[in-house]
Amino acid sequence: MRLDGKVAIVTGAASGIGKRIAEVYAENGAAVAIADINLDAANATAKELVDKGAKAIGVAMDVTDEAAVDSGVDDVVKQLGSVDILVSNAGIQIVNPIDKFSYADWKKLMAIHVDGAFLTTRACLRQMYARGKGGAIIYMGSVHSKLASPLKAPYVTAKHGLVGLARVVAKEGAAHGVRANVICPGFVRTPLVEKQIPEQAKEFGISEEDVVKTIMLKDTVDGEFTTVDDVAAAALFFAGFETNALTGQSLIVSHGWCME
Ligand code: NAD
Q1: Of the given ranges (81-90, 173-182, 191-200), which has the lowest mean pLDDT?
Q2: Whole-prediction pTM value?
Q3: Do the strands 178-185 and 135-140 form a parallel or antiparallel pair, or are they unpaired?
Q4: Residue owning the nearest CA to atom 17 of ligand 1
Q5: Pick from 253, 8, 248: which is nearest to 124 by CA?
Q6: Among residues of the chain, what percentage have pLDDT more than 70?
Q7: Cα 108 to ligand 1 centre (Å)
Q8: Residue 194: per-residue pLDDT
Q9: Right CATH for 7-187+226-253 from 3.40.50.300, 3.90.226.10, 3.40.50.720, 3.60.15.10
């Protein structure tokens, strides 16, 4: 599945899963916009790709900021010529039991995951519809798009919500050749997860090793973490699949943690 001639915007691509997706897209011929709230890190990632011969740019984008998203997407189209693929990936995690969750933290998490997905989708759909050449929109869901875990109320709510958004985009986008799908990874050792291990150990009063064994990987078929490569392979598949046969779907990539 090559992406030659395509332009991809990957949000949150300065780190972790998004960064690996950007690298794999670039390796497969796409021009890539590394859109991140952390512009220095986005530029550094773009430079790594350019040094390897790819076409890539860093773009400052807080996905919760309507004006920044609209101008960031415009900027990508000006610099790279179009937008064919959006990976709405930027995300954070905040863990707390619901009775201790601050409203501010709830709103912060929902804004990045849900408002960010809406704003980036809207800006990219406008470009894709105007150009008339279709496109692929990929949401970074989670096993938590399908299952719940304690301490993760807004995250589970937001990730379930992305499945609904993808289905609406699939229905509205079909006439324009725009497909929308969700990737649902299990635990991947990125900075987002590294931060949760000590937090959960404290909350549950167990060791960090036990957080990994008895919580994070307990229900996998083999006790293994999912990797950024696994998720990037799924993202390449969704980006490269050219017809509406594959739209409105979610693909769980979790070492069998969740099977449905
Ligand atoms: P990460 O912390 O390594 O990377 C997240 C990136 O998002 C960072 O570069 C950060 O600067 C950026 N970001 C944060 N807020 C932003 C904002 N407002 N606007 C733009 N960029 C912003 O995390 P990751 O583990 O790579 O997570 C990426 C996505 O994958 C998230 O949506 C996360 O929920 C999802 N996910 C992660 C895992 C996992 O186990 N790591 C599992 C399932 C789903």
Answers
A1: 191-200
A2: 0.98
A3: parallel
A4: 62
A5: 8
A6: 100
A7: 14
A8: 95
A9: 3.40.50.720
